[in-house]
Amino acid sequence: MSQFPLISVMTFLPLLGVVLLFFVPKQSHSVHRMLALLVSLVTFVVSIPLVTGFQSNADFQFVEKMPWIAAGPFQMNYHVAIDGISLWLVLLTTFIMPIAILSTWTAVEEKVKEYMICLLLLEVGMLGAFVSLDLFLFYIFWEVMLIPMYFIIGIWGGKNKIYAAVKFFIYTMVGSMLMLVALVTLYFKAGAGDFNVLRFYEVTLDPATQVWMFLAFALAFAIKVPMFPLHTWLPDAHTEAPTAGSVILAAVLLKMGTYGFVRFAMPLFPDATDKFTPLIATLSVIGIIYAALVAMVQEDVKKLVAYSSVAHLGYVMLGVFALNLQGLSGGMLQMLNHGVSTGALFLIVGFIYERRHTRLITDFGGLAKQMPVFATIFMIVTLSSIGLPGTNGFVGEFLVLLGAFESELRWYAVIGTSGVILAAVYMLWMFQRVMFGELTNPKNQTLCDLNAREVGIMLPLLVLIFVMGVYPTPFIEKMSPSLEKLIVHVKTKQQGAVAQVETVPAAPQVMPAAAVVPAEHK
Amino acid sequence: MVSLHSYLIVSAILFSIGTIGVLVRRNAIVIFMCVEMMLNAVNLTFIALSRHLGNIDGQIFVFFVMTVAAAEAAVGLALMIAFYKNRESIDVEDVKLMKL
Amino acid sequence: MGYELFGLPMIYYISMVAKVLVVFVFVLLTVAYATYAERKIIGHMQVRLGPMRTGWHGLLQPIADGLKLFFKEEIVPSQADKFAFLIAPIIALVPAFIGFAVIPFGETIEVAGYKIPLQIAGYYDTVSGQVVDMNVGVLYILALASIGVYGIVLAGWSSNSKYSLLGGLRSSAQMISYELAAGLAIISVFMLSESLSLQKIVADQANGAWYCFKQPLAFILFFICSLAEINRTPFDLPEAETELVSGFCTEYSSMKYAMFFMAEYANMVTVCAVTTTLFLGGWHGPAFLPGWAWFIAKVYFLIFVCMWIRATYPRYRYDQLMRLGWKVFLPLTLVNIIVTGIVVSLQS
Amino acid sequence: MLGVYLPIIVLVAVAVIFGLASLTFSSLIGQKKPSAVKLAPYECGCEPVGSARERFSVKFYIIAMLFILFDIEAVFMYPWSVLFKRLGIFGVVEMGLFIVILFVGYIYVWKKGALEWE
Amino acid sequence: METIVLPVINLAPIMPEIILSVFGMALLLVNVFVPSEQKAYLGYLSLVGIIAAGVSIVGGWGVPLDSFSGSVVQDNFALFFKGIFLLSAGLTILISDHYMKREGCNQGELYPLILFATMGMMLMASGTDLMTVFLGLEVLSVSLYVLAGFNRANLKSNEAGLKYFLLGAFSTGFLLYGMALTYGATGTTKIPKIAEFVAANGMVAQSPMFYIGMLLMASGFAFKIAAAPFHMWTPDVYEGAPTPMTAFMSAGPKAAGFAAFMRVLIVAFPTLKADWSDLLWVLAVLTMTIGNLIALNQDNIKRMLAYSSIAHAGYALVGFTAGNAEGAAGILFYMLSYAFMNIGAFAIIILVGKKGEENNNVADYAGFATKHPVLALAMAIFLFSLAGMPPTAGFIGKFYLFSGAIKAGYIWLAIIGVLNSAASVYYYLRVMVYMYMKNPTEEFDWMTLSPAVMLCILIAVVGVIIPGVVPSYLLELAQKAVLL
Fold first, then answer.
1. Residue range C151-167, pLDDT digits in tens
2. How far off is chain D from C60, nearest CA to CA, in Å?
3. I need a labelling partner for A331 at 20 to 30 A (CA). Which of A301, C74, E334, E450 fits?
4. Phi first, then psi: what are they for A66, rounded to 5°?
5. How many structural domains does chain E have?
């Protein structure tokens, strides 16, 4: 514990920004913006040593643990650490934040101070949720995220902002409240101790209990992902949120759901995971196809992108529940990819919306002539989103489908593949309708191309799109050990449970088999 | 001698009459009188039980109940007067400024 | 006399009925002649003769008055609440008469070997060899006084006349105010007697000094408050002719009207009897006269005092009256209790 | 019990019978010539104005409330007065406190003007 | 003539009650002797009384005492609740002056009444005799009847007072009848002795009289804590009463009701836990659900908070149903934090109102955040705490309550609870929607930021946030204070 509390510093740095912002007078908008940007950049810089100092093994690193609440039967710790699973998500968060802040540099004119405070608070919540190893702490951060996001959508959103904000809040709240019940139940089942998730990993619950608790956890996460049919809040929230909100929502918040599955739902309730894998895979595939179909008929660019998110996250879920290394790492990678490319897409939508104050596809057409730089960037991002080889999207989707194909989810993978084609259809069709063709609408003829700030925002994302597409190894390398450990853990417990149910002599046979699993991948 | 049960039954009947009165009457003062009747039914119960058990606590309780009833009566009357002054009525049907 | 009913000998029942009738007739006669006496006494004090025509020195005057009232027309105002209007005089009258039940008016006498205490609500318990009376006799009297108020309020309210209503209200406000002071004043008596039983109080005074000497303040307060409570002059505001016609009984006529008057005089008798019992040693007195004679003498003396006061003092104004009750008598009674408490506990 | 209360009941009966009898008797023998004016409420010979069942001064309510409260306090003093010698000095102190508290209320009421009649 | 030997009387357990009574009476007297322009000092004086009482309870912590032959006790349970009562009374006094001045009410009697009510609550918490509990309850109730109708010129206040009085007196009848029957069945009014009797006599003691007594008592208490289906009085009374009194009623007396209810059920009827747990289960579900559902479509913010307060009683009943230490500690903690957050919210409602026109409609808050960002932030914090969002005291409280239920195996109850709590978010958010997301229709220029009210809000914010982030200390206290 004597080491530098890097994670805490990173997590709570934005809070410092919030405090500073409080003291800045209300009118000095540019100061607010600069300060927020600065803080988020510093946070990003602080988070870089996490990558450089990260040992590529399955252990939790940069651990910080100290007692927090101790009363009655409860013992909660401030326990944070990262492993391969959370590392990249943390990085993604710190990376996206400055971009998000920049994205609404000029779009948000009112209540800039409050806006920046909300963004920074949101960052605290997200980072905290990713690094928490104490379930209670995780829950707190999980809920804390809700509040600033609610305000971001509700105050700075579009026409229908209130409906969207409330819907977002209540959906998430219902899920998370049930998770809380399950969490406490789990705590009492586990016996005296603390809320350390690693401790809960070791608890063996009877399958019936697992089913209920898994359902409660899964509901919370599935709403966040969002999985079909719980996704209805997402298009509303995305459409109404300001660009930065959409970007963060797509890039980070949705990952919270999938991350939850990987970190909590699956390892905690392995038997239930086993039991529900077909259901979740079915829902994921339905999500992929359904969202793609719905996206195809959208009039609104932003809504289209929102539905594409639903489809993308379907892949992630499919990969995660394939429960093998390819699938999982594909899923994890796809999370990052989705963060980058969908984030970028939302930024792009934001750019044209700022110029034209409309997002209807029919209002555009032929923009490519007027805005060549924009068109190029848009093209690259679209291709990345479709998953063209050479871009990041490809690697993720490929691994996911590969993993799913190798697992028992083969047929789901087959159907899911069709989603790739559909994605190409609706994305490209949209791109074509917006960028090519006749420049008919007179309003579009005066549009100016991206300015330096906007290009500057997009550049890092474009770089990442290619880097991750061409050389994903460092990403996968760092996460693999943790994922392997996870797979072993889940599978062992699943089989252990089976062994317990079956005859006793079967147990010794299972143990070496479990030990072999990581060896295969080495 | 009159048995404990008779007392209890009488007080239960009184209590019920009071309760029903509160529920069906409309005049605030009558309602309050019904409440007082309930309290007195309770007092009767206490006295009867106290006598039956040979334990003085019940009688002491009655003292307090009476005191409290008096205080309630004073406050209640004051409230009713205040209400009447503003509204020219003490019908509880008129206590309806704040309905859903 | 060997028969028993509910555990009591027959002679108990016979003596009880006898006592009830004797006392009732006695009170009735006293009431009747108190009216006569009042007119006569005040008349003489004001250097006139008072009633002289009916009988020798007008001795038959009360009977003539009574007969006259019997023959008067009964008027029930058209807007009156008939039932309440009718019941009000009875409610006023009955408590006035039954207060006497707990007052011991003489020593225990012996008839055919059975001891009979001269107190209606009392009997001689052969097992314990003691006179048993109501152990909360004073509370009984206070309770009756409270019931009497209802008669007056009802009379005032049911008549549907403004004078009646105001008279009734004033009268009840006055009565309850002074009832309070009276009730508090006698607490110091109980502190000495350690009992609420009137037998016990009388016995206690026989052994020591009368309470009017031990508790002069309480005595004076109680007597004055009692006068006010029964609307005697100088506190007869409710019937103040100059202000409210006849107060609560403005609309009453005939026997109903008479009953309010009877109630008032009966109350006076009761009050004087209670004062006698509580402060003047009850029926005790030097042995040359029997106890009941002493009792009657003391009561009649107090009744005379009442009339004397009426002849002497002017009537109070209503605000003065209420102020006197609440601002003077009430704190005085409380102070008296505390002082008595301190003195008594210092003595022991 | 019975020995004490039975006579009271008898006395009540006698008093009630006396009252009812004289009422009945007088209403039987008294003359009856009612007229509208005779049955109207008395108002010094003028035509009665309005109903008598109207509001009257709030003072009366206040007196009634004060009576209830002080009377109930008196209720506590009665049992005490019977026992106070046996309670010793403690009893006096207790009742002294009680009366002091009563006095606080009393002074409050006084200063608030509830005892004034104008 | 034998001398009566009196039990030794130790005044220490009722020291705070004595202090409050003395201050209350002193204030009454001071009130009639000082001219009306100096009456503001009464408020400060009453605060001194509250603080003095607060000081007197500190020393008693962890020192169990009883007095008056076991009629009152000083235990941690009582002391914790006393702290809550003093706190809510103190905060209420802080917000009263501003409101009463604005509405033109005579404040003279206000402070003594608050002190007396607080004294009654304390007696309820520390009473271990049904008589003491009853007396405390009535001292409280009678004061509250007056306080609810305190604004005499205001029709709504009249109605609130009258309604509260009639229904309150009615419920007292039930409570008393229950006490009488319990007394009859067990032969004592002392709460621990009732338990002893039941333990000694087993099933023999559990006559119908006994059960009916318990049931009637429970319904009487349920009325006082505004648990459905005995909640009907709450919305009207809360809406009509002067706002500071509404704040007070929702915080202090409710906690007092719980204190007495808990002591009676937990101490007197431990053997019947299965029975009353079932009863409370139903009560809790009804209370939460009805409170929340009706709150959903309230436009008047006071009324909305009234229904929400019903719902909150329901959450507390969840912890009570659990009947274990966590649940009980949860109630204690929750009542404390509820006092902070609710009075805080009402303080802001008071600031927003103006004379005669209280601006209680949710729509009146449109754009409030634009005009008064700090106050709006405070309001948001209170509302989030009421909704049970971390990191606020409201969340920790709810967490404890529901944890208690889960530990006791009432998982469904906890689930109904959390779902309710999720539903409740809707109407709290509604206020925030108006504050933050609508354009201002008013200038809010009539608002005067009275320092006392601001102080109250500040204390409330601190009281909501600090226990929400570092709740250990308070939870520890609550744990030590439970009766189980």
1. 888 888 887 777 777 77
2. 19
3. A301
4. -150, 150
5. 1
